[in-house]
C-alpha cells in the first residue's frame, strides 16, 4: 500500500478544495492510501494439480487486480465527495467500496491461506489451533466436512470462513455473500481460513462441480498461517 499518487485528472476530478487543500481529507496533510495488488507467495502453477495455473493467473492478475483498481477509484471519488460535502455521492459510493474493498481484503487473505503441497499445503494445524479444533468439532476431518457442507449449500457467489470469535473465545464456521469481508458479520471475527467459492475460483478446472473444488482445496490449505493468526489473536 502506498500513499495515493494516481492522477486525479485521470478520472476527471478537480480536487482543489474551497479551503485551499489539494489532496487528502483535511488541511492536516492526511492523504488516503492507494492500495496495490499483493504478490503471490508462490508461482501460478505451484498449486497444481489442485488449482491449475491458468485459474491462479486469471484470478490474481485480472479478478483481484480489478477489485484493487475499482476500490482505488471509488476512494478517489469519495475523497472528492467528502471535500465538497456531496452527500448523495458519499452514500452512493458505499456499495462500490464494500464490494471492491471487500474483494481486495478477501483475496489478500486467500492467497496466504494456500500453499504448495511440497511446502506446507495440507499439513495439519499447529497444536494450539489443532487442539481447539478437536475440542470444538471432534477432529480436523469433522471440521472439514462441516465447512464443505456449508460451501456446498452456499447459493450464488461468496466465501466460506473458519474464524476465531475473539469475544466468545471459540472457533466459528461462517459464510459471506458476494465480496462481503468477514468483518461485516461481526467485528470480533478473525479470519483464519477463507475459501473463495466464486465460480471464477474453480470453473475452468472443476466446471459445475463446486463440491470437488472445495473437497480438494484442503490439500493446499496453509494451516501454519491459520495457526499463527489464531495464536496471535487468541488470549
Ligand atoms: Fe475470487
UniProtKB/TrEMBL annotation:
Record-given protein name: Superoxide dismutase
Subunit (UniProt): Homotetramer.
GO molecular function: metal ion binding; superoxide dismutase activity
Primary residence: mitochondrion
Superkingdom classification of source: Eukaryota
GO cellular component: mitochondrial matrix
Cofactor (UniProt): Mn(2+)
Keywords, comma-separated and alphabetical: Manganese, Metal-binding, Mitochondrion, Oxidoreductase
UniProt organism field: Juglans regia (English walnut)
The keyword Cell membrane is annotated on this UniProt entry: no
Matching PROSITE patterns: SOD_MN
EC number: 1.15.1.1
Principal EC category: oxidoreductase
Protein function: Destroys radicals which are normally produced within the cells and which are toxic to biological systems. Destroys superoxide anion radicals which are normally produced within the cells and which are toxic to biological systems.
The organism's taxonomic lineage, starting at the top: Eukaryota, Viridiplantae, Streptophyta, Embryophyta, Tracheophyta
Substrates-to-products reaction catalysed: 2 superoxide + 2 H(+) = H2O2 + O2
One Pfam family cited in the UniProt record for this chain: Sod_Fe_C
Annotated ranges, domain Manganese/iron superoxide dismutase N-terminal: 34-115
Family under the similarity heading: Belongs to the iron/manganese superoxide dismutase family.
Amino acid at each position: 500500500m502506498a500513499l495515493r499518487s494516481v492522477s486525479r485528472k485521470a478520472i476527471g476530478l478537480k480536487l482543489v478544495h474551497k479551503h485551499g487543500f489539494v489532496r487528502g481529507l483535511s488541511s492536516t496533510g492526511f492523504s488516503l492510501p492507494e492500495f496495490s495488488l499483493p504478490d503471490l507467495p508462490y508461482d501460478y502453477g505451484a498449486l497444481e494439480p489442485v488449482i491449475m495455473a491458468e485459474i491462479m493467473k486469471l484470478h490474481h492478475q485480472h479478478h483481484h487486480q480489478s477489485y484493487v483498481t475499482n476500490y482505488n477509484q471509488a476512494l478517489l471519488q469519495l475523497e472528492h465527495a467528502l471535500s465538497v460535502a456531496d452527500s448523495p455521492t458519499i452514500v452512493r459510493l458505499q456499495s462500490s467500496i464494500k464490494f471492491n474493498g471487500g474483494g481486495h481484503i478477501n483475496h489478500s487473505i486467500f492467497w496466504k491461506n494456500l500453499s504448495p503441497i511440497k511446502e506446507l499445503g495440507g499439513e495439519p494445524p499447529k497444536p494450539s489451533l489443532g487442539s481447539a479444533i478437536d475440542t470444538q468439532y471432534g477432529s480436523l476431518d469433522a471440521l472439514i466436512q462441516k465447512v464443505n457442507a456449508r460451501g456446498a449449500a452456499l447459493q450464488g457467489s461468496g466465501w466460506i470462513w473458519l474464524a476465531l470469535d475473539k469475544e466468545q473465545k471459540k472457533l466459528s464456521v461462517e459464510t459471506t455473500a458476494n465480496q462481503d469481508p468477514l468483518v461485516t458479520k461481526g467485528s470480533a471475527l478473525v479470519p483464519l481460513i477463507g475459501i473463495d467459492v466464486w465460480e471464477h475460483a474453480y470453473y475452468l478446472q472443476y466446471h459445475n462441480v463446486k463440491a470437488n473444488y472445495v473437497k480438494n482445496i484442503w490439500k493446499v490449505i496453509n494451516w501454519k498461517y491459520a495457526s499463527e493468526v489464531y495464536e496471535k489473536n487468541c488470549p
